[in-house]
């Protein structure tokens, strides 16, 4: 009796891995596919990542962050053999699905994910939220303190409500110019 629902169809499936081992799982899986001659049933493995801009110590750096830490996507046709090869790859804890039957990824979700991964413009990694108290560390309002009123992650701008002459005034600043108190 087969423990898999064998449809013979090619789909993307989600693997659960130990956190931090996603890249090594994808690499190991690709090696196993080749060494075990499974190229005609297991086609690809990928770790969904996107670029983000982080601001640390007053400098912008572009980092690649995993979209779903602890998960790897694999493009395959599920059979008992392919299930065994994938499931017994080091640091794979299992497929996402009910019981031992993997659930395929919805094609719309996959298209959205691939679009998100392919975006060239990195997003800003924001260390504060609306309502947080921040201190301006650069520019004409240096050393002023204020409350975050608005965030524009796409442009890397923040509006801070700064008290000038006893009145709250909105000041638009770059993410680099403020830090959380």
Biggest sheet strand line-up: 13-12-11-10-14
Largest sheet: 5 strands, antiparallel
What is the β-strand count?
14
Number of domains: 2
| Name given to the CATH homologous superfamily of the largest domain | NusG, N-terminal domain
User: What's the shape?
Assistant: elongated
Radius of gyration: 23 Å
What is the count of DSSP helices, taking H or I runs of 4+ residues? Answer: 3
- Looking at CATH, which topology of the largest domain would you report? Alpha-Beta Plaits
Mean pLDDT: 87
How would you describe this structure to a colleague?
The chain has 181 residues and is α+β, with helices and mostly antiparallel strands. It folds into two domains: 10-124, Alpha-Beta Plaits (2-Layer Sandwich); 127-180, Roll (SH3 type barrels), CATH 2.30.30. 19% of the residues lie in helices and 43% in strands. The protein contains three helices and 14 strands. A five-stranded antiparallel beta sheet has the order 13-12-11-10-14, with no helix packed on it. Strand 7 and strand 8 form a beta hairpin. The chain is elongated and about 75 Å long. The protein starts with 9 loop residues before the first strand and ends with a strand.
